[in-house]
Amino acid sequence: MKIGILTLPLHTNYGGILQAYALQTVLERMGHEVKVINRNTDYKLPLWKTPLVYSKRIIKNILGYKIPLFYEQKLIKEQPIIRQNTDRFIQRYIHTLNVDNYSDLKAEDFDAIVVGSDQVWRPKYFGKIEDAYLQFAKDWNIKRIAYAASFGTAEWEYTDRQTAICKDLIKKFDAVSVREDSGKELCKKYFGVDAEHLLDPTMLLEKEDYIRLFENSGTSQSPGTLMCYILDETPEKQSVINRIAREKDLIPFRVNSKVENYKAPLVERIQPPVEQWIRGFYDAEFVVTDSFHACVFSILFNKPFIAISNKGRGESRFQSLLKLFDLDNRIIELPPKTNKLTVDIDVFFGNINSLKRLYIKKSISFIGENLHND
């Protein structure tokens, strides 16, 4: 079958890139021809927005916020530099079909479209959320499957109009699955649809699949033993890192840049290679993170970890994942309410790996059965 994967645009986010790579790999191993539909990022301001946006920026600069007046031009110039390493991975390993608009896609190019995974059903991340439910393909005669799609949060963020449109569109799907248990509840409550709870695509591959990626690229060993992957840095999170490093006699190292900080020097915003990020889990003795996918890869690589609650990026994602593997005690609030931050969980990984195998079997069966069920 000719299958398109509809997910969030690929850029510098390691988890977003690897979940697309993993789902593509699974489908290809089933014998399908796969393209990841990648919407090109348009950094230009619509003409009708320009006067209002520029006026707001001028006011903010007067107030001392130092917002670049011509921010879009800055993005166009800097993004190819910031993305040079992640773009190289995407070009090498992901078979993309790049489009400016989803309306550019043609029905004859697909037998099926799989929507997911990542926070593809979160309006503030996707843009025109109706297209995440295949509005552009509503009249096509194709298979429509949602695989581990995520709302990103347990809260409902759709307008009444979006809810009504997406409710009609999702009824056209042959099968619906979500990545979080809260997603099942949201689908039932707002769409009247029963969804299955399945694994993030990255968990469908074995750690050996990821090891091959950094071995093939000749990636150098990580410069420490305590991997720190923090998306939203704060003094409180740094305090947790320092405490764990001291208690376990580990050397902290980071694998991400200041990619989202436009005030930082450009050289500090260049995102390291995807392979370096993966190697970080292989080399680490312990992981500290506020990232969902860093929790996933800690589990994949059987590494003890602490997940710092990150409500701004969707806390329910962490809770659902860790609950699935009976790792609820890995998530902490700030400031920590316990003195035992570094309780080793090595002894539990045998059970965790057994559970993972069961969930993988269920997830792979969902994909295979619904693609071929006529």
Automatic annotation (TrEMBL):
<dbReference type="Pfam" id="PF04230">
    <property type="entry name" value="PS_pyruv_trans"/>
</dbReference>
<feature type="domain" description="Polysaccharide pyruvyl transferase">
    <location>
        <begin position="13"/>
        <end position="311"/>
    </location>
</feature>
<keyword id="KW-0808">Transferase</keyword>
<dbReference type="InterPro" id="IPR007345">
    <property type="entry name" value="Polysacch_pyruvyl_Trfase"/>
</dbReference>
<protein>
    <submittedName>
        <fullName>Polysaccharide pyruvyl transferase family protein</fullName>
    </submittedName>
</protein>
<dbReference type="GO" id="GO:0016740">
    <property type="term" value="F:transferase activity"/>
</dbReference>
